[in-house]
Write a structure and sequence with these properties.
7-stranded mixed beta sheet, 263 residues, Rossmann fold
């Protein structure tokens, strides 16, 4: 039975590069329209880009590698960076696979048995409102020693929260717990088990405009002084300067100029 299960899983994996776990059918689904950005379009996160690229390349080459927590402001390219780096390295190493799971589907025993592949287990937008069973399962999965994690598995997680818990929850623990240090330590111990903490923050106005310029260049859209002014106005109206709001501006800019955007 195990042989048949591994055979079917290998068959599925051989047909694609990126997958998502479907809890309804309890199986992997191939992501046929895998979306990614060219790495040179990810601007303002050069340090983060190099860190996750080097880590992923090291992993694809079969070495022990740190799990990574990408945390920070929403819309600044955490998920995009993981997908873009994966796509770039997968072009040269077809044995590298990306599997997106939800936090309550974190298991990798079946993938660890398939030594002919290396798996990035990707959990997007992870956070906890309390220490529940999912929290404890992931914590036990990341049991603090890379030696105990299969060599062909690495975990990449994105979150808006550095410690995966609401800040007020941690602060309340500091003020109300009987054993304060132990209680706070329990709440931040999960994030401590990631070897890499990669922070993302709002970008500068110049970087925002540079992203707009690169998008315009890629999609053959007009870029001039008025485009720059309109993009800055757009970011002020949105209340943030992020890669996501830059992309939303480009969609609007393309529509206004009767242009089609296609990857």
């Amino acid at each position: 039975m195990m042989f048949l299960s591994n055979f079917l899983l290998n068959l599925t994996l051989s047909r694609g590069k990126a997958f998502i776990w479907d809890s309804k059918i309890k199986n992997l689904k191939i992501i046929s329209n895998f979306s990614y950005l060219d790495l040179d379009l990810l601007i303002g996160i050069e340090r983060q880009k190099k860190t996750i690229y080097d880590n992923t390349k090291n992993f694809a080459e079969g070495n022990f590698t740190n799990n990574a927590l990408l945390w920070g402001s929403r819309g600044n390219g955490k998920s995009s960076l993981i997908k873009s780096v994966f796509y770039e390295i997968n072009r040269k190493n077809k044995n590298l696979k990306l599997i997106q799971l939800n936090k309550n589907n974190i298991f990798y025993e079946k993938y660890a048995n398939l030594k002919n592949y290396n798996f990035i287990i990707f959990i997007d937008d992870l956070s906890f409102e309390k220490i529940d069973s999912d929290y404890k399962i992931i914590k036990s999965t990341l049991d603090g020693s890379i030696q105990n994690q299969p060599k062909n598995i690495v975990l990449y997680v994105t979150s808006n929260r550095r410690h995966l818990m609401p800040r007020d929850m941690i602060e309340n623990e500091r003020s109300s717990a009987i054993h304060t240090d132990e209680s706070v330590e329990e709440k931040i111990s999960l994030s401590d088990r990631f070897g890499l903490w990669i922070g993302f923050h709002n970008i500068s106005q110049n970087e925002f405009v540079r992203i707009i310029f690169k998008y315009c260049e890629k999609f053959n859209l007009p870029f001039n002084e008025n485009t720059e002014k309109e993009s800055i106005k757009w970011s002020l109206q949105r209340g943030n300067r992020t890669g996501r709001s830059a992309w939303q501006f480009i969609i609007n800019h393309a529509a206004e100029n009767n242009k089609k955007i296609d990857f």
